[in-house]
Specification:
Strand content: 35-45%
Helix content: 10-25%
Strand order of the largest sheet: 1-2-3-4
Order of helices and strands: HEEEE
Low-confidence stretches: none
Structural class: alpha+beta
Mean pLDDT: 90
Largest sheet: 4 strands, antiparallel
Length: 81
């Protein structure tokens, strides 16, 4: 995946989830499931991982997962609580 596209995705995610700001994401290409209709564009999974501060200052793991098309369109965003 193009580094410029990843940078644009990061800007959008940092704005929406400031607790992951500055975290370098992991990028993986998702395999196409068996039986998927053809043609199907690949989907990339961009994952941000950090520790957020919860009540009382306790560290809580925070995950933000973003499914992205090859041209940089965000298809789905999920997060841990």
């Amino acid at each position: 995946m193009d580094p410029e596209i990843i940078e644009e995705i990061c800007k959008k995610i940092y704005k929406k989830f400031p607790e992951v700001s500055g975290v370098q994401p992991k990028v993986r290409k998702q395999p196409v499931p068996k039986g998927a209709p053809k043609p199907r564009e690949p989907v990339y999974l961009v994952t941000f991982n950090t520790n957020a501060r919860g009540p009382g200052g306790k560290a809580l793991p925070r995950w933000v997962r973003v499914a992205v098309s090859p041209n940089g369109k965000i298809k789905k965003t999920t997060t841990s609580k």
